[in-house]
């Protein structure tokens, strides 16, 4: 098929086209067409999905796992909100879908005229969504203020490239606001280095709560000299000044004459190490705007091309590929081009033979995104796992929720254990298995010392001694972040899950005594079970059940209720089903939880009006909450009751919450967690035992999905899931075949995916007997 000339190449003209012909560079070539019928997959991605109703995504420019994520900030606490109509600046660092303010460092905004304001809420520029465009690696908006300025953004791994098209004026400005980030700014300095260069250092802190500070270094170089400059400190403006430092807010501006040449380009490089690191990153990755934008789009086209779908309505395909795109935005490169990075001991180290990554929303991502990346990005996933081990080696303990170079201690439980054991089962820790196991064993059996900034398993002393974390709501926090004692019930369930997957790793490595010990602890969830209510309840320090007996109102569950957390026992669902009275009793409770009768009558309305109550409405509910992590596995519990068709009914209803619109994200995306849930559930293969190697099956929503896999980890190099004729009507599995052989189990193992090639579903309009036998259900880990 003949390829059309890319619009960026049309704008750049014959010079760039000639350069493409001479160099033959894949970075400059038109993007590959990996979609059906030559369709560019990047054209199916809508970066605005999730920018409204607290999805907290961003529409700006980034490459997969890039350190820089250059995007507009409109005044929302996490950056951009689709309902806003003023842009305060384009800043270098964002995290996709987080629920608390962080990043937004160095917002930069083009203006015209005299510089008279230093508060970006006052000098913000008006815009309309009609004048806004975005695709993977590129963002464009026309600012209605200041005579009309067009701003374009693109990115490399460590740099953000901007192009501003000004009106004809002698006072075209670019404002650098070092003192107004999304987080709390501790101290900043900014310097006009020469006639083309601006440098800044920003130290900030905070994520949901106060944290240790981190420091970011930036260097911005323009494509031509500016004609004037100045700085500000607080409200005071100093034209001609070259430097400013402050604890309260400062910045700088540079000026251009655009009466003849209206375009101004600039590259901003960042480093978490030092100013020299930012300079090296800039030199290594600086290129013209069009070349950078084409390279970014090509990187995304290749990444998205690892998953090719056939069938499905256009809106579903757009929603799917947009979810896949967001799944590859984090974690983020943390090392500079020379391999140096700042460790959690706040010292400079060098990554030798791997790329160092940072930003660890582990409580969220261990349930979905970690598994998706292990399949589709195993090389990067290996480096991510090694990066987490470096945190332990250099900082003294494994992380819980890490931002940049610091631990925030946000959320509860022990999410790092299933994250690393998942990497182990995918072969990503080859050569580092015992190193990882030693770190996990230390984490599972101990508590970080008082002088450490980590909290780890804060309630571990009581948990190891008594089998549960006591609910101590009045206990004073001695370290920033959340306390496991404040959420004793959910912390106990999370610890037990982690113990279960660690027992499996210990057994596989030959540590039999440890395996037995952790397997025993994995059943500590039973210590929370109250036979009088039939639900889990927190216990106080004396062992008595604490708080309300109403499972919808019980305290001690982080961002959820006893109704929602009752299914968080993936390591031993057969044991849980026994506690609940057997398969039939468990099925009745699941039916109530999902409002199953109403669901069958109207799936989409039930999902939106019964399940969903608001992006942060976590409590006082007895129904499924598809917007938050504790419930992500719950629909697949029906597999263990012998009713796999009910899993499909619930999953397909939940998928209707993902749409191709700014409101099309269900709750915070949490660094790709919810997006990965959508991708895996749409494919029909979902990790029902996070941290282990078991994947539950449900009916795919596409006729066919082809996964292109890295042969270094998956020797076959591909895995195809097919379900010809799948639809809202024909959504029930009649039979499954794996590489041509009948497959009666409702699950696969990671090894089956590694060694297999074809998973074929036959579907129909009615439930069948497939997967209903006692041996068809996922086994307990222990």
How is the secondary structure organized here?
Blueprint: H1 7-12, H2 14-23, E1 71-73, E2 86-87, E3 89-91, E4 108-112, H3 120-123, E5 125-135, E6 138-143, E7 149-155, E8 159-165, E9 172-177, E10 184-194, E11 197-205, E12 214-222, E13 228-233, E14 236-239, E15 243-246, E16 250-256, E17 263-271, H4 275-285, H5 289-304, E18 307-310, H6 314-327, E19 332-333, E20 340-342, E21 348-350, E22 357-358, E23 360-361, H7 362-365, H8 369-376, H9 378-395, E24 401-403, E25 406-407, H10 416-425, H11 433-445, H12 460-466, H13 488-508, H14 512-521, E26 529-530, E27 535-536, H15 562-565, H16 573-579, H17 583-594, H18 596-601, H19 603-611, H20 644-655, H21 673-683, E28 685-687, E29 694-697, E30 704-708, E31 718-722, E32 732-738, E33 741-742, E34 747-749, H22 750-755, E35 758-764
Parallel strand pairs: 31-35
Antiparallel strand pairs: 1-3, 2-5, 4-9, 5-6, 6-7, 7-8, 8-17, 9-16, 10-11, 10-15, 11-12, 12-17, 13-14, 13-16, 18-30, 19-22, 20-21, 23-24, 24-25, 26-27, 28-29, 29-34, 30-31, 32-33, 32-35
Distance between the termini: 54 Å
Q: Overall mean pLDDT score?
A: 94
Label the structural class: alpha+beta
What's the helical proportion of residues? 25-40%
**Spans of 5+ residues with little confidence (pLDDT < 50)?**
1-35
How many individual domains? 3
Question: β content, as a range?
Answer: 15-25%
Major sheet summary line: 10 strands, antiparallel
Major β-sheet strand ordering: 2-5-6-7-8-17-12-11-10-15
């Amino acid at each position: 098929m003949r390829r059309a000339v890319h619009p960026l190449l049309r704008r750049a003209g014959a010079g760039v086209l000639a350069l493409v012909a001479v160099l033959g560079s894949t970075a400059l070539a038109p993007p590959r067409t990996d979609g059906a019928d030559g369709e560019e997959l990047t054209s199916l991605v809508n970066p605005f999905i999730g920018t409204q109703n607290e999805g907290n995504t961003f529409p700006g420019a980034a490459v997969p796992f890039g350190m820089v994520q250059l995007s507009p900030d409109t005044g929302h606490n996490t950056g951009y909100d689709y309902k806003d109509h003023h842009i305060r600046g384009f800043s270098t660092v964002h995290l996709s879908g987080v629920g608390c303010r962080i990043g937004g460092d160095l917002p930069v905004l083009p203006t015209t005229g005299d510089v008279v304001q230093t508060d970006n809420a006052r000098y913000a520029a008006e815009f309309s969504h009609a004048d806004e465009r975005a695709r993977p690696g590129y963002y464009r908006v026309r600012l209605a203020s200041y005579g009309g300025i067009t701003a374009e953004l693109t990115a490399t791994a460590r740099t953000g490239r901007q192009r501003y098209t000004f009106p004809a004026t002698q006072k075209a400005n670019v404002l650098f606001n070092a003192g107004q980030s999304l987080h709390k700014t501790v101290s900043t300095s900014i310097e006009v280095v020469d006639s083309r260069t601006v440098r800044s250092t920003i130290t900030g802190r905070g994520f949901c709560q106060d944290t240790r500070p981190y420091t970011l270094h930036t260097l911005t170089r323009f494509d031509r000299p500016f004609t004037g400059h100045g700085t500000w400190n607080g409200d005071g403006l100093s034209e001609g000044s070259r430097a400013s430092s402050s604890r309260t807010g400062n910045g700088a501006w540079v000026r251009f004459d655009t009466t003849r040449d209206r375009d101004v380009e600039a590259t901003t490089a960042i480093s978490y190490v030092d100013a020299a690191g930012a300079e090296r990153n800039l030199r290594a990755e600086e290129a013209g705007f069009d070349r950078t934008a084409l390279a970014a789009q090509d990187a995304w086209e290749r990444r998205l091309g690892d998953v090719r779908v056939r069938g499905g309505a256009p809106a579903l395909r757009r929603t799917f590929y947009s979810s896949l795109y967001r799944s590859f935005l984090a974690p983020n490169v943390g090392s500079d081009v020379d391999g140096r990075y700042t460790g959690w001991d706040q010292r400079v180290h060098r990554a030798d033979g791997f790329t160092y990554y940072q930003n660890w929303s582990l409580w969220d991502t261990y349930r979905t995104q970690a598994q998706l990346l292990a399949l589709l990005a195993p090389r990067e996933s290996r480096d991510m796992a090694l990066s987490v081990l470096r945190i332990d080696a250099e900082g003294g303990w494994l992380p819980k929720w890490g931002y940049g170079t610091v631990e925030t201690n946000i959320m509860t439980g022990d999410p790092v254990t299933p994250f690393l054991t998942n990497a182990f089962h995918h072969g990503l820790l080859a050569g580092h298995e015992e190193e990882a196991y030693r770190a996990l064993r230390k984490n599972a059996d101990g508590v970080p010392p008082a002088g450490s900034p980590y909290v780890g398993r804060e309630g571990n002393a009581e948990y190891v001694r008594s089998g549960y974390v006591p609910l101590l709501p009045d206990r004073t926090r001695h370290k920033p972040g959340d306390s496991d004692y404040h959420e004793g019930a959910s912390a106990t369930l999370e610890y037990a899950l982690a113990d279960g997957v660690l027992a499996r790793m210990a057994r596989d490595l030959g540590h039999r005594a440890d395996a037995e010990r952790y397997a025993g602890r994995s059943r500590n969830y039973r210590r929370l079970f109250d036979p009088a209510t039939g639900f889990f309840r927190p216990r106080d320090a004396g062992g008595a059940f604490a708080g309300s007996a109403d499972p919808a109102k019980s305290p001690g569950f982080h961002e959820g209720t006893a109704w929602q957390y009752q299914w968080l026992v993936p390591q031993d669902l057969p044991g849980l089903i026994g506690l609940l009275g057997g398969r039939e009793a468990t099925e009745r409770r699941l039916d109530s939880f999902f409002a199953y009768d109403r669901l069958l009558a109207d799936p989409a309305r039930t999902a939106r009006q019964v399940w969903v109550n608001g992006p942060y409405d976590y409590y006082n509910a007895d129904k499924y909450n598809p917007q938050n992590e504790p419930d992500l596995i719950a629909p697949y519990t029906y597999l263990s009751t012998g009713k796999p068709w009910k899993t499909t009914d619930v999953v397909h209803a939940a998928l209707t919450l993902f749409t191709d619109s700014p409101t099309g994200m269900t709750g915070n995306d949490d660094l790709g967690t919810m997006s990965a849930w959508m991708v895996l559930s749409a494919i029909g293969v979902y990790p029902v035992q996070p941290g282990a190697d078991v994947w539950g099956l449900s009916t795919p929503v596409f006729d066919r999905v082809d996964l292109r896999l890295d042969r270094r980890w998956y020797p076959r190099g591909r895995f195809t899931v097919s379900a010809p004729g799948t639809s809202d009507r024909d959504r029930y599995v009649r039979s499954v075949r794996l590489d041509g052989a009948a497959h009666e189990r409702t699950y696969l193992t990671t090894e089956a995916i590694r060694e297999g090639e074809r998973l074929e579903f036959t579907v129909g309009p009615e439930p069948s007997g497939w997967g209903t036998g006692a041996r068809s259900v996922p086994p307990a880990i222990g």
